[in-house]
Known about the structure:
With 299 residues, this protein is of the alpha/beta class.
Amino acid sequence: MNSAIRWPSEVPDDQVPLDVRSVTKRFRRRGRGQSQPGPGGRRRAYHTAVNSVSFRMRPQEIYGVIGANGSGKSTLIRVLSTLIIPDEGDVLIFGRDALHSPASVRPLLNRVSADPSFFRAMSALENLLFYGRAYGIAGPLVRQRSLDLLTRLGLEHEARQPMTELSRGQQQKVAVARAFLTAPRLMLLDEPTTGLDPRSKRTVQSFISDVRRDGVAILLTTHDMEEADQLCDRLAFLAGGRIVAEGTSEELRAHVAGSTTRKADDVDMEDVFMAFTGRSIEEDEEEPESREELQDDTA
Ligand SMILES: Nc1ncnc2c1ncn2[C@@H]1O[C@H](COP(=O)(O)OP(=O)(O)O)[C@@H](O)[C@H]1O
Ligand SMILES: [Mg+2]
């Protein structure tokens, strides 16, 4: 079934897919009194969305970045996919310098954003054909790959329906299929299952496990602790833009159990998050702040 997908051969299977070194990304707050704090005001001119983040993925790993809304997940993904430039740090993708030569890494990676956009009047298949051809994949091959991917994601019957007739979950699956068309070796998935019904969630999760077996390294973000626990080989907790813990779910649970009288089996991921951040994932959501007040320096 995977015959339609052929990976670019130029990266060895044992190469580190992603090496993130002290990456920091700040956004400037618009219209604020620059760096001096105002009278009684604690607000600074900059907001640090991603703060000295370092980690290294292993070949064919599913690596989960867990964090509340506003913890910096999407900003991190946008930096790693070369869409925005960090203020500090380095990113190596299969040993290539993503910040200084983004064109060299783009063929190796792809991203699914948390809020994908499509040509809404076109069908799922047409969206994939358009995208695939734009990426230079030959017509017959792109059709074969598109149908294969849509089938693997359980959308064989919806492939020819306009996007407007698909549910949000189905649209999210089309976004996943589209991103895999280019046969990336590193896939960055920003909350791929948020908002999906339980069945679609399971389909997407098992698709992710399958493609890993095909040799793709996957970084995904989530705030679903169960998903993180079951799907990911290793996890990193992101809180306020910083990684506060990293390890396998067993390691993280054992660490928390070790500091209490509980057994590791009785500790769940929510407890682990609480132990490392001092808050539950819901409490960790940052106070809402109008997007209009913030601006992207790299824009
Ligand atoms: N383009 C932007 N301009 C200004 N601030 C931003 C921008 N994108 C994100 N932020 C801010 O950076 C922080 C992290 O956001 P984000 O990476 O979207 O978090 P998450 O994906 O974990 O919800 C938030 O405070 C958010 O408001
Ligand atoms: Mg996000």
